[in-house]
Design a protein that fits this description.
single chain; 306 residues; alpha+beta; Rossmann fold; Tumour Suppressor Smad4; 2 domains; 15-stranded mixed β-sheet; two-stranded antiparallel ribbon; elongated
Length: 306
């Protein structure tokens, strides 16, 4: 049984999201709730700011991003751009990864997640502001650079479960020989990080990436800092041992890993890095990532934010 909303709410639903199919009855029940208005993102223009501004003018107090991490990122970015600090962001995880929802501690079933929103608490949420030589964007969960994207897309669920966030490093026979080394100087809060050749860069606001794979156990959504995890180039045996240490939960202590908290990261490189922001791909030679502390309000279950 679905709980009724306790305040005027806009639900931004992505009917094309990974697990949204088969939820027609669920969304029909939401339409029957007098406090809920539904906006189907698959049927609207890309610009979310006008409908969100309208929702603010109508006195709606919450906006629910019903979809995957990309949907959450789009809704959060639009909220921030229109300055809607009084409207709390909530998440209904309907994507294939739902990494941001996992850090919030949300149930991953639609009805359970919906019911968890109403006794849930409202806290603050940091955002990541990303600037390249060509554009600016925002992220709520994770920015990555390097080898991650191409290898994540090619691997099976079984391999991902066995090897975690570093599954692209799983062995020297068919993967390590294909890794690209990326040159770059990386500063965190003005401090130059030792090393110039990298396999990967993670800038974590949330803890998970790639569908529940732990990247940083120390990342927090509301402490005014990201947690950067940098993977240095190394010998094949060192890379293979990194994947092994991931399995026992101690990869951040590996000799190839630099782990650093901060509020600003700068990358300067002579080559293009393939990057992702909440799963959306882009490329950059120059990258600046800053924390926007307490940028929005966010709804989470009755436990402290992760």
């Amino acid at each position: 049984m679905l709980q009724q909303a306790t305040c005027p709410t806009l639900v931004c639903m992505n009917s094309a999201a990974g697990s949204a199919s088969g939820l027609e009855e669920f969304f029909a029940l939401l339409r029957d709730d007098p406090l809920v208005a539904l906006l189907d993102l698959s049927q609207t223009a890309d610009d979310l700011e006008p409908p969100l501004a309208k929702a603010v003018s109508e006195g709606r107090q919450r906006v629910v991003a019903a979809g995957g991490d990309g949907t959450v990122s789009s809704v959060a970015s639009a909220l921030y751009r229109i300055g809607a600090r009084q409207m709390a962001l909530a998440v209904l995880p309907l994507g294939s990864g739902n990494d941001f929802s996992r850090t919030l501690g949300m149930p991953l079933e639609a009805d359970e997640a919906w019911n968890a929103l109403w006794p849930g608490q409202v806290g603050t949420l940091d955002l990541l502001e990303i600037a390249t030589e060509n554009e600016k964007r925002l992220a709520v969960n994770m920015v990555t650079g390097g080898n991650t994207g191409a290898y994540m897309d090619a691997l099976t669920d079984d391999i991902k479960q066995r090897w975690g966030a570093f599954c692209y490093l799983r062995g020297v026979v068919d993967v390590v020989r294909n890794l690209t080394t990326f040159e770059g100087r990386i500063h965190v809060d003005g401090q130059l990080i030792e090393g110039t050749e990298w396999l990967n860069l993670f800038v974590a606001n949330g803890r998970y990436s790639g569908g529940g794979l732990l990247v940083s156990s120390q990342a927090s959504l509301d402490n005014g800092q990201f947690h950067a995890v940098l993977i240095n180039e190394g010998q094949p045996t060192e890379i293979a041992s990194l994947a092994g240490q991931y399995l026992v939960g101690s990869f951040e202590e590996h000799s190839l890993v630099t782990s650093q908290a901060g509020s600003e990261l700068r990358l300067e490189s002579s080559q293009l890095w393939p990057c992702t922001a909440d799963g959306e791909t882009f490329e950059a030679r120059e990258l600046v990532i800053r924390v926007l502390s307490s940028a929005l309000q966010v709804v989470h279950p009755n436990e402290p934010l992760a």
